[in-house]
Amino acid sequence: MSTEPVTATTPGTAPGPDPRVTVAVITRDRCAGLLRTLDALAALPERPPVVVVVDNSRGDSTWRAVRGHPAITRLLRPDVNTGALGRNLAARHARTPYVAFSDDDSWWTAGSLRHAADLLDRHPRLGLLAARTLVGHEAADDPLNAVLATSPLPCEPDLPGRPVLGFLGCACVVRREAFLRVGGYHPLLSFGGEETLLAYDLAAGGWGVVYEPDLLACHHPDQGERTGRPAVVRRNQVLTTCLRRPWPVALRAGAALALAAALGRPGARRALKETAVRLPAAVARRRTLPPHVERAARLLDGRTAGGGAG
Question: Which tens digit of pLDDT belongs to each residue from 212-234?
């Protein structure tokens, strides 16, 4: 892996960068989207002092296009496509207490990062803040927002917002210590519904995971999904249950996937095959949730959309 520090400039009109937050951006072969994200981050009034970009691209075109961008402080180029694990890599390179995640199609609105840092300062058990996500030029609410806002989990006196066990990976802010302590994103899952397992692990470690609608992230996804994403999401849902949930829950999830494959549902056969390949590793790394987190997960079973359970 190569790593390149980049000298960044701060606009003279900015009130000063917030030294508490690093923005971590992962990208793969979407140079135009990445440049749009970087431009948006550079324009923030409270522009973060550090923007770490993890470039998973197959060639050098993205690196050549963005290496001189004034928003970037450090550009990391792994030798292989790290997927969601690129977020783990970026967090390890961060030196701030909090890390805000973006992708090459998402960015933060003015004031959101500072507000997130203030909340994390005031609530030491808070491990992750899930933001309200606004989609496209119309700034439409992502469907996940409503799922998170109506989470049935009870409020906790030492946490802000609404407790949840899901979020969107490109629209959250984490306490770096908590994120790294639980291991970040799991290597078996890569992209596609990988957020639920991280939420489980944070909650199991005693950290709070909450939805805070006053934090706003903009998401401008490409038209159409990347090839194979529905299958990967199905696969990861089953693997997550195998890694953390009781066996009856995992077996029901596996049986539902097998039935979907038998019925010829889109992506189900691929998902079943990929799940079977990864199942021995999942069983070897299996660690069930503590009872209070399992009770919360049961309350949320079936309430999934986008990045995970509300």
Answer: 999 999 999 876 555 567 889 99
